[in-house]
Amino acid sequence: MSLPGRPKGESRSAQHDGASATLPGRPKAESPNALHEAIAATPTKPATLNALREQIAAISARLTPRQRAAASHALSHPNDIALSPLATVAATAGIAPSAFIRMSQALGLDGYGELQRLFREPLQRASRPSYRERIRHYGGEQPLDDPQDPAQLLRAFSQANIVSLEHLREDAATLPLQAAIRLIRNARLVYVLGLRRSYAVAAYLAYALNRVGRPCVQITGLGGAIAEQASAAGPRDLLIAVSFPPYAADTLRVCEQVHAAGARRLAITNAPLSPVARDADLMLEVNDAELLGFRSLTSAMCVAQALAMGLAFHERQRRVARSAHAADTAPQPPDHRLDDIDC
C-alpha cells in the first residue's frame, strides 16, 4: 500500500535522499563553488566617481557593446550625466536609455539615479568639465569659414591644443606619473609600442628613455615581424603601449602577447574603457585636441616628455647620493638642468 502523495514504489528513504530527489517547486541547492563564483561575479557597488571609473575598467570585458558605449559616453561627458535627465543624455549620445540603466546595474548600482549621484558629487566641490565638454563650451574647436586657408587651420588647431594642454595641466596631479616612472625604473628592459598616429609618440619616448640611460626597445613591426619583436618580453620587462582611437589591431595583439608572457604594461591611451588599458598594470589617460577629424599629439608628447624627464631627475639624484656616500661627503644640491641629455 502506498501513502497518499507518494509515487507508487518509492521508498521513504529515497524521498529523503537529497541527492536523488527534490521537493516539487524547490530549486536544487547550488554547489559551494557555484555560489562563490556568483558572489565573485557580482560587482561591488562603487561609492565614489573614481571607484566607478576603476569598476568600469575592471569589468569592461563583461559589458555588452551598448553598455560599453553608454559607459564611454558617461566618462567623456561627466557634467552632462550629472546635470541632465536620462532622456536628454540618451538623445545626445544616440544610445537607448535602457543601455544606461543596464550599464548602471552591471556596475553594481541600482539604476541611473545612483549613477547620476556619483557624477554629481564632485560638482559640489568643484566643477571641472571633461576634455570634450571643455572643447565644446570654451571654444577649443571652432568652426572654419575656409578650411582651405592654412593660416586659419593653424589658428583653430592652436586654439584646440591650448584647451587640451590646459586640461592636462589641471589634471596633472591626478595622473599616476610617479607610479609610471617607478614601473619604468624597475623594468629590466622597456619595450615601447605605438603604431599609426601614435608612432611618433612611441619613437620619441624610446629615444628619450635611451638618452636618460634606461635600456629601451621600440617595437616597430618593420617587415611584418611585430610578434617576433615582442617575443623576447618576459616577466621582468615592461611594455609601454601608446594607442588612441581607432586603436591599431597589431598594438592590441602585442598587448595580449606580452600579457601572456608575464610582462607588465603601462598604457597611454584615451579612456579606462580603451582596449589598450584592459589588463594593464597602470594607465595614463590622455586626451588630445581634434579638429575636423584630425587628432593632435600635443598632450601625448607632453606626457612622454614628463616621464622621460622625471626618470632622468630621479636617476641623476640617485647617482649624486651614491657618489656622496662613497666619498663620505655631504650630498650636493640637486641639479635641475638636463643640458647634457638633450632630449
Q: In a nutshell, what does this entry contain?
A:
With 343 residues, the protein is α/β, with parallel strands linked by helices.
Please provide a written account of the structure.
The structure is a single chain. This protein has 343 residues and is of the alpha/beta class. Among the domains are: 77 residues, Arc Repressor Mutant, subunit A (Orthogonal Bundle), CATH 1.10.10.10; 138 residues, Glucose-6-phosphate isomerase like protein, domain 1 (Rossmann fold, 3-Layer(aba) Sandwich). The strands form 2 sheets. The chain has a 5-stranded parallel beta sheet with strand order 2-1-3-4-5, sandwiched between helices. It has a two-stranded antiparallel sheet with strand order 6-7. Helix 11 packs across helix 15 and helix 12 runs parallel beside helix 15.
DSSP helix count? 15
Residues in helix, %: 40-55%
Query: What Rg do the Cα atoms give?
Result: 27 Å
**What do we call the CATH topology of the domain at 173-310?**
Rossmann fold
Instruction: Please identify which CATH superfamily of the domain at 173-310 we are dealing with.
Output: Glucose-6-phosphate isomerase like protein, domain 1
Averaged pLDDT, please? Answer: 80
Order of helices and strands: HHHHHHHHHHHEHEHEHEEEEH
Strand content: 5-15%
Given helix and strand content, the structural type is alpha/beta
Which class of the domain at 173-310 in CATH terms?
Alpha Beta
